[in-house]
Amino acid sequence: MNIRTETSNDFKAIYDLNYEAFGNRDNESKLVERIRESSGFIPELSIVAETNGEIVGHILLSKANVIDGEDITEVIVLAPVAVKPSFQKRGIGSRLILEGLKIVKELGYGLVLLIGHPSYYPNFGFKPARQYGIELHQFNVPDDVFMVCEVKPGELSLVKGELRYPPAFF
Ligand SMILES: CC(C)(COP(=O)(O)OP(=O)(O)OC[C@H]1O[C@@H](n2cnc3c(N)ncnc32)[C@H](O)[C@@H]1OP(=O)(O)O)[C@@H](O)C(=O)NCCC(=O)NCCS
Question: Is the minimum distance from the CB of 132 to ligand 1 under 6 angstroms?
């Protein structure tokens, strides 16, 4: 299994992978394309899992802001992550998430936020975000699915406010 940054040669395979993983719908495939064309895109944070020349997993992390009045903090949001159904439950999703978090840390960002399964992401250090004073108004989701991972120690005591997903997400 090779975990690496995407290249333009992977775009079609990533589209097809997201289409299949999310139940034969193209919402997430199109989301990836919109983010890739947006100012929030960070090339190192579109990561694929490849085996025998086939793309079997993909994760995308990109820029968003936490806004508190005049204070704006650039953070990272994780979405989407997908593993080809026939390759799921073998740890590929975990490897992609851990690799993404590692690169986020290397790039110097402090927080990663997401909306996701409350039983899966705590494995990687994600915790419910609202209890730390981070709000979300753009999506009406329960407390336990809106999660944050503190990549830079101490960051959660410094950053408060509303997470704003950029226009590419809508
Ligand atoms: C969510 C998703 C990316 C996870 O990918 P994955 O490669 O199956 O993830 P992992 O293998 O790391 O972990 C999945 C489960 O398999 C288990 N697992 C990991 N390795 C395993 C192995 N070798 N044998 C058996 N089980 C294993 C994990 O413990 C985990 O169980 P848990 O949910 O009880 O914690 C994948 O299921 C997917 O693409 N889903 C559809 C798209 C989606 O919903 N994406 C997330 C929203 S953005």
Answer: no
